[in-house]
Design goal:
Layout (H helix, E strand, L loop, with lengths): L6 E7 L8 H18 L4 E9 L2 E6 L5 H12 L4 E7 L16 H16 L3 E4 L3 H19 L3 H13 L2 H8 L3 H10 L2 H20 L3 H5 L2
Parallel strand pairs: 4-5
Antiparallel strand pairs: 1-3, 1-4, 2-3
């Protein structure tokens, strides 16, 4: 029988010691963590907090919002490069508000995924219940992050507006430019494909975490 399992997201900033203004980066990180704890509060069992240096971690009730969380931190901390490990599994200890005081399979898998991300130079690594699912999610998410990392600040800004407002016409209106200008910048960034992949990742994780992907197979 399928069980809904908690999910741990552990993230770190790559080469943070090389950042000229580390104080400013730390301030941005703390601000992003505070915002994430508000935005994802309905999905969180334990809030995100800094665990060591520039590393932070949080515990989700399930994996459905895991990619959304990863993308949120990517957007808020750009252009800094991140390594993110996402692990699904049991929590062996009592649930408490301080994520640093808990342990279990989900935490171990998240840590293993983070170390793999650092070792392989990937942005996001998943450790779920199935290696084929891990490979699919890791490759897709890391490719999306890689594309995003190549964008200019303007492309990142307009993509964020597109997700927020829904249409290029609304983005153009907000930015005070023509629709053609918005379309050109987003098309050259392959933003449409990135958006499709991000929506597919979110939908897949929602279905996976609830066991909905098993239903069609069981009917065969």
């Amino acid at each position: 029988m399928w069980r809904i399992l908690p999910c741990v997201v552990t993230a770190d900033i790559r080469a943070s010691r090389e950042v000229p203004d580390r104080a400013e980066l730390q301030e941005r990180l703390l601000s992003a963590i505070a915002e994430a704890n508000g935005r994802f509060r309905d999905q969180l069992l334990a809030s995100f907090q800094v665990t060591l240096g520039d590393e932070w971690q949080g515990l989700l009730a399930d994996a459905s919002a895991a990619y959304a969380v990863a993308a949120f931190f990517r957007d808020r901390l750009a252009p800094q490069s991140l390594a993110i490990g996402i692990g699904e599994g049991e929590v062996a200890t009592a649930l408490v508000s301080d994520v640093r005081q808990m342990d279990g399979e989900a935490f171990h898998r998240s840590r293993q995924a983070l170390e793999e991300a650092k070792r392989r130079g990937l942005a996001v690594v998943f450790r779920m219940r199935d290696p084929w699912v891990d490979a699919l999610l890791t490759s897709t998410a890391s490719l999306v992050f890689d594309l995003y990392g190549r964008w200019t600040p303007l492309q990142r800004e307009r993509y964020g507006l597109l997700r927020q407002l829904g249409t290029m016409a609304e983005v153009a209106k907000r930015a005070g430019v023509s629709v053609a200008a918005v379309s050109q910048s987003l098309s050259s960034a392959r933003a449409g494909l990135v958006q499709e992949c991000e929506e597919a990742l979110g939908a897949f994780l929602s279905a996976w975490s609830q066991g909905a992907l098993l239903a069609p197979l069981m009917r065969r």
